[in-house]
Amino acid sequence: xxxxxxxxxxxxxxxxxxxxxxxxxxxxxxxxxxxxxxxxxxxxxxxxxxxxxxxxxxxxxxxxxxxxxxxxxxxxxxxxxxxxxxxxxxxxxxxxxxxxxxxxxxxxxxxxxxxxxxxxxxxxxxxxxxxxxxxxxxxxxxxxxxxxxxxxxxxxxxxxxxxxxxxxxxxxxxxxxxxxxxxxxxxxxxxxxxxxxxxxxxxxxxxxxxxxxxxxxxxxxxxxxxxxxxxxxxxxxxxxxxxxxxxxxxxxxxxxxxxxxxxxxxxxxxxxxxxxxxxxxxxxxxxxxxxxxxxxxxxxxxxxxxxxxx
Amino acid sequence: xxxxxxxxxxxxxxxxxxxxxxxxxxxxxxxxxxxxxxxxxxxxxxxxxxxxxxxxxxxxxxxxxxxxxxxxxxxxxxxxxxxxxxxxxxxxxxxxxxxxxxxxxxxxxxxxxxxxxxxxxxxxxxxxxxxxxxxxxxxxxxxxxxxxxxxxxxxxxxxxxxxxxxxxxxxxxxxxxxxxxxxxxxxxxxxxxxxxxxxxxxxxxxxxxxxxxxxxxxxxxxxxxxxxxxxxxxxxxxxxxxxxxxxxxxxxxxxxxxx
Lengths: 310, 259
Ligand SMILES: Nc1ncnc2c1ncn2[C@@H]1O[C@H](COP(=O)(O)OP(=O)(O)O)[C@@H](O)[C@H]1O
Ligand SMILES: [Mg+2]
Description:
The complex is a heterodimer of chains A (310) and B (259).
Chain A: H1 12-51, H2 62-99, H3 102-115, H4 120-146, H5 163-187, H6 191-199, H7 204-233, H8 236-241, H9 259-266, H10 272-302
Helix pairs in contact in A: 1-10, 2-3, 2-5, 2-7, 3-5, 4-5, 5-7, 6-7, 7-10, 9-10
Chain B: E1 5-14, E2 17-27, E3 32-36, H1 43-49, E4 60-68, E5 71-72, H2 80-86, E6 87-90, H3 102-107, H4 119-132, H5 136-139, H6 152-165, E7 170-174, H7 182-195, E8 200-204, H8 208-214, E9 217-223, E10 230-237, H9 238-243, H10 248-254
Helix pairs in contact in B: 4-6, 6-7
The structure holds adenosine-5'-diphosphate (ADP) and magnesium ion.
């Protein structure tokens, strides 16, 4: 019998490795299976909508005519939210990580994290009761002075319950996500690279543009994507704040609708084909989120060579 | 294009901890000065006060004067950004900007403060700086590739190129070879010998042979015990420090009897 002293069997370390890799694999598979199950459920339930007589679908002109205005509404609301929340979130995160005195930074970071814990119905109520009325004068001003741009065409809403208001409420909701993730990433910038910039005679802002932002780029994209996920899927706040209607270009008139709010508002009374329609709308939202994430991954991957990971 | 440094009665603190006490030293223009001493004696700390990098660390402060050709770096109204553009620094671990190409790394400091530079001037400066850092021949075909793809020694020379591109008066180096293999180390030592024709060079090293090989003058720092401040024990011509030191502690250290 040959024995090799280097061979060992059943030692503790190996068992630990096996358990851990097994658990990791299991968790990974579980996630994929769940995702697949959701997709299959959506597909099966949505199927009747696609095969049904177009005249029976809401609006009477088939699923596409029904869905595309609310897809656009969803995208507009999410775009407004990100357009506002991304620069503000990055600026606040930079302030906390690189400008504020330490004690102020800690307090501010804590407050931002708290914002993320507020339930969305509260944001919705705030948007409905406070923000919407407060925005009415600004909407009127926009209609009077920039009304020639289709986006600000009048007459402005008298209640302020418009897609722009909804977008702003969504911006406030995604702001904590973008801010706290960005802050974490900014704080992880290697001291080495910050000092490299400073030692060349960079000002603090130049140091941030040379060292911090390039390092944080993939992380910022991920943070924005997480924010986008919340903005796309948010139901309650939009349902409360937006006075819905058909698709219109003006952001300051009532009108437009988002997928998530459409589903939430109509789901309780829906049955039969209408239910299937709403689930199909959910499927569309699922696909939009998936596509957005794929695009984000592609953007991150494209810059891999210069990411410093090599 | 190089200036002398005179340090007068400098105390260096981390918040309330006195890390380096009462250092006075005169560093000639166009010379190489080495700082040696056991680890923890404050060589890096002191070096970083010479271009106001020490205050980047929270709680970092100094008392005393550092004069660059007579101008006090620490006088109120002096902008540390200006100081650092005149007194460059090379760090222990090579730190090229990972998201920038080799070329952009060299130009990083030059493009600061919104300075505009024409394309041809930029190309000429990149070549001159990389030649100055003995790196040109190795990278001239891949200037647009990321700097982080180079070997450690090449990265360190890239950092030197980036530093000399801004035409500083003084170059500070904190153990620039400690993360490098012997061949890369020799390449950098050769380079230091050339740099002194144009710049004032101050180098921290834990390697005494290296100090003996590259420097004109050597400063020996020591520490009485943990928690005690580091002090400048002896400062003299390198040959004197290594062959005929005036202080017993220096002799013990350079002969390898402690530290
Ligand atoms: N960031 C810091 N905060 C507080 N103390 C520090 C810091 N860096 C270094 N020190 C202390 O300052 C002293 C000198 O350290 P250093 O300058 O790194 O020594 P050397 O470079 O000679 O090895 C040591 O006691 C060290 O613990
Ligand atoms: Mg050191």
